[in-house]
Please model this.
Amino acid sequence: MPLSLSPDAHQEYLRALLRAPIVTILYLALWGIAVFFIKTTLHIDLFGTVLARPSPPLVNGRLPGSSLSLPPAPSPRTILLSALALLGTLLWSFLVWCGLLHGSVEGAIFAFYVAIPFILVVLPVVGFGRGNIFPYIRTLRRVLWPSAEENVPFVEVFVADAMTSLSKVFADTGLVLAVLVSRAVAFDVNNTQFLSKPTAQLVSTVVSGCLPPFLACMPYIIRVRQLVVLRLWSEDGDERWQHAMNVIKYLFNFPTIWLAAWLATLPEAPAPPMAAYHEAGSWATMDGGPGDVLVHGEALRLSIMRAVLEEAVVFCSLSSLFLSFIWDVRMDWGLAQTATVRQCCLRDTLLFRSQWIYYSGICGNLILRLANTYIGLTGHVPAFLSRIDAAFVMEVLEILRRTLWCVFRIEWECIKRATKGEGRQFEKLMLAA
Model:
């Protein structure tokens, strides 16, 4: 990345600034809708059962060694109001910063980020206040780096799985940080002479080339770390094998991300000048310039490298797509377990009444994955979305797919726990199925 952004790079920087908060707010709203759907159809209290983290006995309603009480389980209304509060804050930032103060879009987004801690910590908005925000922060810390000294509970696995759908949001954050680093380096060059210009250019190029793909890989790194811990604590040979295969599935995302980032840094192959092919079999310009062979050699090298990288990205993307789809249906949803005519490609126990809900879920998962991969590989979006940024469309498709995944993942977890006899609420579900 050059020390000064080109107009196209600046526009991409602004789009990345906008995408991250909008997609995150939409993801939170969709999660609230999913919780409401599960609660009304399965009559399951997610945060009191499936997503409850095992904790030590309470002392006077508080956790031992802590002055903070357990955080209340968020209801669908609380989650939706949280998303609405964040959306209102974003709109307020634009209204005040851009409308009243005539500032830039960049300033409005940073004002939004400054306002978030004030809303979540200082003001008791939608159930989040100073007294109960810190347990959520501690849970998030455990998700980001699970300890090998204790097993990973399902709620932390579930959150980490959900974070993988925000990989492109992490990449957008990396792009924004890379621009800020480039500006800081340029400031040093122009004012304090802290770095020489070649060194500053090198730092800017390395950061812009490595930071976005590294942050995009972070959710998968967290998930792989969880699987390693789960495999260490598992005593069942089949479970250990499943964790190992799951690691391989996630590892396919790493070459896809890094190869695509490398491909984006390659310059376009220079167009060949007007030339005539001589009988000797060599290219030459009409003026007979001797440097033309070098021009064509460089163009050929870049063309071959781009072709190889494009093929590698396609292979890794399609491999990851089909591995993830099969894992979703077979392992995360527990489907494709029976071959009976009545429940073809489903399972013996179904908590939802209609089988078409499951078939629609399977087809929807595959269609959303295929659409996301196609847009990622080609950059083309449907005609009715032609005015919308392709990266934003991809991120929205992914969080829609993850919301669909959450519903069936929770249902399968309820069935597994009922089979193990872990709670009366799950047993009632089995009786009603």
